[in-house]
Write a structure and sequence with these properties.
The protein has 328 residues and is of the alpha/beta class. It folds into two domains: 222 residues, D-Maltodextrin-Binding Protein, domain 2 (3-Layer(aba) Sandwich); 92 residues, 3-Layer(aba) Sandwich (D-Maltodextrin-Binding Protein, domain 2), CATH 3.40.190.10. It contains 14 helices and eleven strands. The strands form two sheets. Strands 1-3-2-4-11-5 form a six-stranded mixed beta sheet, sandwiched between helices. Strands 8-7-9-6-10 form a five-stranded mixed beta sheet. The longest helix has 20 residues. The radius of gyration is 19 Å and the shape is globular. It starts with 5 loop residues before the first helix and ends with a helix.
Length: 328
């Protein structure tokens, strides 16, 4: 795995361990087709755009169930089997599955900027990759390829950085056991901010780490045989995330209302929702629409994925669904 363990990452945000199962709220009784959307993790504002689409009936003509993910609910198997029409994954996971023969296509990119970041304290900041030299970084050893890729992209000697295996928590940094942490920009920095700890976030995407995250994947067979359903689901996602961007506080409240037993902390979820916006929206999406990508962004992904040991080609990405939705 090349991403932070989602079990520990999400426990920091207190998303709760209750298995909430599928959600089918807000769908019209006359829906003529059914489809499951497999989420990549436990319910939280990370998926609030989908909750909005569900609640406001944006999946027109389609009865959608949002399947909660988790440590024992990987995204790829239900999509391959057809249990889920679409799954929310990430380019590195999808690339790994494709290398093993899975017939996936990436249909949309929710997170334009990968959320991986280096978090540090304001009194000893890591503002750019060169600042890592001589520092102690707390991280899971499974994410060493991620750090190596960042170093390679920026001409930094990874051997000049002391890697300290840590649990996924801000505590080692706050306690002074390490100088920085490898994490997601939307969780450990959020947790520290909520706790009143002055911290700095260096987004790795700003320094060449290009791996599309929160991507929509489907099989080639589904693209052929259930294209109308995929169009309806993705069109609903576009509308839902547009509403999310317009009012993240309302999106947070909807999440809390829909999942009152998930152990979600309101302040944490509210800040997480706000901090997702610059990861998901950009000049590119403003010009072309939610989920968009270009040949250049794909080329950057292919380069970074290569550094992670994943060999893919540009045809992994299929933009035809978005082009139809956005009228390109």
């Amino acid at each position: 795995m090349t991403q932070v363990s989602k079990l520990t990452r999400r426990s920091v945000l207190a998303t709760g361990a209750a298995a909430l199962g599928a959600t089918t709220l807000g769908q019209p009784a006359w829906a003529q087709a059914k489809a499951n959307l497999q989420l990549s993790w436990l319910h939280s504002t990370q998926f609030a755009g989908s909750y909005i689409a569900l609640k406001r009936g944006y999946y027109e003509g389609l009865e959608v169930a949002l399947q909660q993910g988790g440590p024992n609910a990987p995204v790829e198997p239900p999509v391959v089997s057809g249990t889920a029409l679409i799954g929310i994954s990430a380019a590195d996971y999808t690339a790994a599955a494709v290398q093993e023969g899975a017939p996936f296509k990436i249909l949309g990119v929710a997170m334009q900027n990968n959320p991986f970041a280096i978090a540090s304290l304001a009194g000893n900041p890591v503002n750019e990759p060169a600042d890592l030299v001589g520092k102690r970084i707390g991280m899971a050893l499974t994410n060493t390829p991620v750090l190596q890729a960042l170093c390679t992209l920026n001409g930094v000697d990874i051997n000049a950085i002391e890697i300290v295996p840590t649990q996924y928590s801000p505590q080692p940094l706050v306690a002074g056991d390490v100088d920085c942490l490898l994490c997601w920009a939307t969780d450990l920095p959020v947790a520290m901010t909520i706790q009143g700890v002055d911290n700095v976030t260096m987004l790795m995407a700003d320094y060449g780490y290009a791996v599309h995250s929160q991507t929509y994947i489907a099989t080639e067979d589904s693209l052929t045989n259930r294209r109308a359903d995929i169009l309806a689901l993705m069109a609903g996602e576009v509308k839902g995330w547009g509403d999310y961007r317009a009012d993240t506080d309302a999106a947070t409240q909807l999440t809390l209302d829909m999942f009152p037993d998930a152990g979600l902390d309101a302040d944490t979820q509210r800040l997480q929702a706000a901090r997702q916006v610059p990861l998901m929206f950009s000049e590119l999406t403003d010009a072309n629409g939610f989920g968009w990508w270009t040949d250049d962004t794909v080329a950057a992904n292919i380069e970074t994925l290569g550094l992670l040991g994943r060999t893919v080609t540009a045809d992994l990405w299929d933009r035809s669904i978005l082009e139809e939705i956005h009228g390109a």
